Amino acid sequence: MKYGIVAFPSKRFQDLANTYRKRYDSHYSKITPHITLKEAFEADESDIQDISQTIASIAQKYAPLMIHASKVSSFYPTTNVIYFKIEPTNQLQNIHQDLQNALNIGKPKHVFTPHITIAQDLTATEHDDIFGQLRMIGVNEQESIDRIHLVYQLEDGSWTTYETYRLTGAE
Amino acid sequence: MKYGIVAFPSKRFQDLANTYRKRYDSHYSKITPHITLKEAFEADESDIQDISQTIASIAQKYAPLMIHASKVSSFYPTTNVIYFKIEPTNQLQNIHQDLQNALNIGKPKHVFTPHITIAQDLTATEHDDIFGQLRMIGVNEQESIDRIHLVYQLEDGSWTTYETYRLTGAE
Fold it and tell me: Would residue B127 show up in a list of annotated catalytic residues for this protein?
């Protein structure tokens, strides 16, 4: 089964991201707007209790995530993905690294770049047009996120939450 | 903000429901297949901590939900909704009633009929055709669900999980 670990921002911020996603993001209907903390990984259903306990113990260490979406960026030319850039912080880097190390499943494909995807699967021309527009509009949102979610993927590509973990620590 | 309380069945059973939902359910992309335990209700974001604690205390009382999806039924003529009927049990009735009483928000519109929706927003003719077909195919799935979810709705109609509660009691 395919799992991932994400942080959902506030409803208000998700609604903002969705105004773009519904037009430009092919995964719009598969999951609501989120920051991926641990990329999708395969795990056996029988291991999920252990994995969940590991995540719970990491979540206990961390305080709510302070996030600042500061601008619209793109992963072009690696992929034609446009996103709200979340300013990197030690806190985000550390929780990502803790999850990565503890689970040790699925080597990260990319350097961790915290973000909220707002457009993907665009042609090169679409990408250039839309990125030009959205970069001008920009984004500037700050908030704290007090929980993270372990999610799993159904056969149709959609994601369901398996468990939530409140961030109740000090780091 | 609009909230609801649901139980998601296993991935396998969700995948089965989605084979129908992707063709026949207008809400297919808004939430993955689920049993609604408490219908959508409005609550202030500032009250959600209290509501969440109330749900947690109820969840502690109950053992994992034993469910048996026994046949394909329809709410016609009330609505053109086709669903997997979940056999009513005291356990399901009690957890629904506890949630309803404790939250005391939004009178239930209908008698509680545990189900998983697989088709809705059909014309009368579509309903009759599809119901005829699906009733013949039928369903017979038994499983236990060890957690419930508090979900909230975004402006586009999609639902995000706020919190999960494991059913760790004996009832």
Answer: no
